[in-house]
Amino acid sequence: MSFGPLGVLALCVYVVAMVLVAFRARRARRDRTPADHFLAGRGLGVFVLFLTLYATAYSGNSLLGYPGEAYRRGFSWVMSTGFMMSIVVVFHLLAPKLRPIAIQHAFLTPGDWLRHRFGRERHGRGVLVACAALMTWALANFLLAQLTAMGHVTHAVTGGIAPFWAGVIGLAGLILFYETLGGMRAVAWTDAAQGLMMLVGLAALLVWLLAEAGGLEATSRAVASLRPEAVSVPDFREKANWLSTIALLGLASVVYPQAIQRIYAARSGRDLARAFAAMSFMPLATTTVVFLIGIAAIPRLVGLGGVEADTVMPRILAHWAAEGPGSSALAILVFLGALAAIMSTADSVLLSLSSIVAVDLLDRPRERPETTRLGKRLAVGVMLGAVVLALAPRLTLWRLIELKMELLIQCVPAFLIAIHWSRLRAGPTLLGIGLGTLLAGGAALAGMDRIEGVHVGVIGLALNTLVAVGGSWGAAPPAGQGPSGEGSRRSP
Questions:
Q1: In 3D, which of 263, 245, 267, 241 has the Cα closest to residue 93?
Q2: How many whole angstroms separate alpha carbon 332 and alpha carbon 236?
């Protein structure tokens, strides 16, 4: 069973709504500068800011990848709530100090912080290019995961009426349309409605799953009888993996370019603080729910493995829709909320990626409309490449998350340590990034993702930090540089 024609109709309504939002956002733009396109004119209020952070954080990775991983691993995946909480905690170590500097110097991209902090040093440009390259890799990987998720959802909920490839290509085209037309403003406005739909729909889906199975206790017994290993007490390696994943996700997520740019885009520091305060509760409201959905699917969907397990959510939605008109309407709401969250993350990623390549890697002027046009052309090229790769998925969504985090986490010292410790120098920081990336990337290429349960990216970060801090210890900051890098160069 599936939504079939009703799902196709809902998809069409959603597409039309996104097109209308794009035209409205285009009319609301103030000018054609990169700041207006990439940061919505730095005018996002607390309500829209919270929902755009929420819809971006909970994407195809969490709504498809997390239930799929819970289905594969069992109750040990409860750690997903913990590592999503760690993301919010670590952001409180960065945002309060970065926000005032970013506003004072009109930052546009994450690289602007690196220019400001290391700009007077010999290897400052190297740190910028290294971090921008790692962020570009992570964002391209992230975009690929979202496109794969869009294809899975579209195919499943329409019962094959829209095949996997049509979902990938068609919705990728829609993202390109409204992102290039409305920029960050269109992204943020759509996120507001998308986040609300997702919250309501997931809550209703969880109630149905547990009620149908007789509650969490009955679900646990059914899982234990079918797959005893799914309810077993984690061993040492699994516990080490818990701590490693919390560190990997918590630290790497703080340097997500799209999240950093939302720090810049907030209307005020007070609005930003309120948005992050509200985000503190979202792991319990969302990650716990999708974890339980994956667990409840174990006795209902037997025999799914590998990449196929990433279709747990749409398969459950199809079963729910078959219960009757009311269930079908709520299932469609979840479908639209999940699809909207996936697309909101994809368009945010694409927006950040194009700005990083245009401004940080190609070093184009940040105040010129020509840079905005270049960013749009880059977005088209990147999207076309990602679509080609997404049409033949080979990795699970969770493994795609890990791969991007293993390398993205190597940027952490240049942001989190640099903003709190004025003596961190560009040369050792660049060397640390290089060694950490070589260790994490080399191990991944060799097929080694963990050592005794610890991610190779976390081990790479430990080496990276040791080199950066050890090489900077005792060195004085460059002349004119204050505690957080203030005064290191003129405002960008």
A1: 263
A2: 41
Write out the residue range of the structural domain in which residue 209 sits.
Answer: 5-406
Tell me what pLDDT residue 465 has: 96
In a domain, 459, yes or no: no
Phi, psi of 400 (to 5 degrees): -65, -40
pLDDT in tens, 428-454: 999 999 999 999 888 877 777 788 888
Per-residue confidence (pLDDT) for residue 224, from 0 to 100: 87
Q: Across-strand partners of 44?
A: 266
Q: Where are the alpha helices (DSSP H) in 391-425?
A: 397-408, 412, 418-420
Contact (Cβ atoms closer than 8 angstroms) between residue 77 and residue 294:
yes
pLDDT digits 0-9 by tens, 299-355: 888 877 776 777 787 778 777 777 777 777 777 777 777 777 777 777 777 777 888
Instruction: Retrieve residue 191's tokens.
Output: 């996120």
- What is residue 414's predicted lDDT score, i.e. its pLDDT? 95
Bridge partners for 266 per DSSP: 44
E strand map for 258-320: none
- Is the C-alpha dihedral spanning 179, 180, 182, 183 positive or negative? positive
Instruction: Identify the CATH number of the domain in which residue 279 sits.
Output: 1.20.1730.10
286 neighbors 56 (Cβ within 8 angstroms): no
Where is 484: in which H helix or E strand? Answer: none
What are the residues whose beta carbons fall under 8 Å from the beta carbon of 145, sequence distance 6 or more?
A: 59, 60, 61, 65, 397, 400, 401
Position 464 in a domain? no
Cβ-proximal residues to 343 (8 Å cutoff; 6+ apart), any chain: 18, 146, 150, 171, 174, 175, 190, 194
Q: Is the separation of the CB atoms in 54 and 279 below 8 Å? A: yes
**Residue 95 pLDDT > 80:** yes
Highest mean pLDDT among 123-127, 286-290, 338-342: 123-127
Spatial separation of the C-alpha atoms in residues 465 and 462, rounded to whole Å: 5
Say if 461 falls within a structural domain.
no
Is residue 178 over pLDDT 70? no
Total residue length of the chain: 492
Task: Tally the domains of the chain.
Answer: 1
On whether residue 419 sits in a domain, the answer given is no
Asked which of 28-42, 202-216, 324-338 is least confident by mean pLDDT, the reply is 28-42
